Amino acid sequence: MNTILVTATEESTGKTAVALALARLAQERGLSVGYMKPKGTRLQSNVGKTLDEDPMLARELLGLDAEVHEMEPVVYSPTFIEGAIRGRESPDELREEIRTNFDSIAEGHDVMIVEGGGDLTTGGIVGLTDPEIAELLDAEVLLLSGYETPADVDELLAAVDDIGDRLAGVLFNAVSNTNFDPLDTDVVPFLEGRGIPVLGVVPRQQDLAGITVGDLAEELNAEVLTRADTDEFVERFLVGAMSGDKALRYLRRTRDAALVTGGDRPDLQTVALEAPGVKCLILTGGFRPPGAVIGKAEEKGVPIMLVQADTLTTIDRAEDVIRSGRTRNEETVERMGELLHDHADVGALLDGKGSDEE
After folding, report:
1. 344 DSSP 8-state letter
2. Are residues 47 and 163 in the same domain?
3. Residue 358 clears pLDDT 50, i.e. is over it
4. Who has the most CB within 10 Å: 132, 262, 287, 307?
5. pTM
């Protein structure tokens, strides 16, 4: 049986989409696939229990019979972490629990996909970092990484060193057009020259990187005040707390952004409507803007949404939506599967042949 642990140099690098897409590609090859996420880190309340969303999605998309508590034996919640620090959790017992559940799930499967939790070092408090889990489960490791500047290679090399001989290869994910060529021509040869296999460079896709204004409004339970189109994508959030003149210079340098500011700042709202990179305004505190601002927004085609929460709460919620929200579904996994097929050496992972025969 082939066991592959998917981890990353940092959070929100696409582990779930890559892990589940890889599992589906294995199923398409006629292989029997199991899934496990030993540390549940994406938490929500579900029937009184704290559960990770990812195993539930895996169970649905892969048609698995294993129970969620088997796929996620350790719920790495703030309460768990506090208890571990105070000595209420036994690392040996946790390792045994993970190993026992893994053996039960893996029985009869050709491939086991193991998804890491958080980033590479999450779980260190109880000796369950992703490299330690790879050792426990005798897994090869697929390391995901983003790439924005050459300095990112330092962090990548440190992660590779932590993983050691279990490294199957590195996969760069969500690489922008501007960074694609320098990564391909300079960084990849550099890494391969040091004996670090690079299994693919997946280009950034806007539909996977952001969320539409309409979906964002629904997630924030916001009232949309304009009749403007809500199909534009938002990828980042800006807090409006500056004067109008300074704001315009700043906002003109951004792209695919939502400005979050108090509804009682019509000066800043008016300035933001002049910035082409601002795709919508999110007004907080329940304060409705003047009619003139709404009229200008409709003229410019920029949606305005109103929320009752304060600015800090709204920013936290909006960023969480971007990291884990509406794009986390079957469509995302299918899209990632296409990208892996086209831009990654899937065969090197699934059957060890070193190249994808398709």
Report:
1. B
2. yes
3. no
4. 307
5. 0.78
